[in-house]
Please model this.
Amino acid sequence: MATFSTLAYFPITIKVSRIRASYDPNKKSLNNIKINGTLTKSTAKLDMASTLTSISVTENGYISEQQVRQNIPTTKQFVDHYRQGMIIEGGVGYRQRVVIRSYEVGPDKTATLESILNLLQETALNHVWMSGLLSDGFGATHGMMKHDLIWVVSRMQVQVDHYPIWGEVLEIDTWVGASGKNGMRRDWLIRSEATGHVFARATSTWVMMNRKTRRLSKMPEDVRAEIAPWFIKKQAITEDIVEKIVKLNSQAKYMNNDLKPKRSDLDMNHHVNNVKYVRWMLETIPDKILEAHQLTSIILEYRRECGSSDIVQSLCQPDEDGILKDEVKQENDGSHINGFSLAAEILEGNGYLASFGKQPLRYTHLLQIDEESKNEEIVRGRTTWKKKSFSH
Model:
C-alpha cells in the first residue's frame, strides 16, 4: 500500500509596489515574488523547477497569476502529495485516494450517483495534471490548445455494486486507451481502501471538438503523439455488443418540462455539466421507486451541448420487460400486493417470491431542447435499479 509523506509547502505571495496605468492584474513581475517572506530576485540561485514548476516567463519578464496559483506541472509527476495521487500501471495509469464527505451523501448516508460522477471527473483531470501535458484548457493538452480543441464525452457507462458511506476512504484508479482512430476511452475502478472490495466500474468515450466552431474534429498527429504513449489495453467494463438506446417521444409515461439551467449548472466551457443531466433524468422517476430501489447501472449517450439559455424537457419510460412495469401502487385489489400482480407473475413462471424485486427495473430516458421547432436531443439514457437492502 502506497504511503504519502508530508511535502514542504512554499506559499507564494505577490507584492505590487505601485499601480501604473498599464497595470495588468493578471501579470506579476518575477522580481517581486516572495517565498516564505524572503524577496527573491530573478538572478537568485533558486531551484525554480521544484518550487514554481508550472510558471512560464513571458518576453517582458512577467508570469500569469493563474499559473502561480495552479502550479500545473510541466513534466510528468509520479506522486501528488496534496491530492494523495500516484502514477501506476507501469507509469501510465493513475490512482487517487479520496474520502467521502458529508455533503456527498444522500438521505441513506451513502454517496450519491452525482458525487460518484464528480469524483470520476476529478480523478480524470488529475491524471492529465500528473502527466505534465495539461495546458490551460479543461483537460486539454498543449497540442489541443494549439489547435483550439477540447474534449467532449460521447458515451458513458457506470456500474455500481455498492455505494460507499460517509467517511469511507476510497481508491480510484483511472487509465486511458484508444477508441477508434480519433477517439479516446477512459475507464475507472472504485474500491474500498480498507477491504479492496470493488464498489463501482465506469467507462467512457471521448472525442475532440473545435472550441470555436463547435464541430467534432479528427485527432491531429501531434496530439496523438502526446497522448498515445499513455494508452493501455485494459477495460473496466467489457461490452461485447454496445446497447442501443431508443429515442423516446411525447408518449413517454413521465415528463418534466421547462427545466432551465442555472448559473451553478455551468462548467468551465460555459455549458451544462454532464452530471447535471443525470439529476434531471432521475427527477422524472417516481418517488416510490427511488425510495425503495437503488441505481445499479446508468448508460448515457450524449448528442449535443446544452447552453445556459436552453429550455430542457426530460422524458422517462419504464421498460416493458421489467417485473415492475409501473411505479409501486397502493392497490385495494386482492390480486395485487404492494403493486405486484400475482397472477401475471405466476403466469410468467416467476412465482410469488420472485416477484419481490429480484429482477431489476429498467428505465429509458431522454433530455431534449423543449421547443416544438427543435426537439433536439441532448442525451439519451438508460438506468437499471434493484431493491434496496436498507442496511445503512
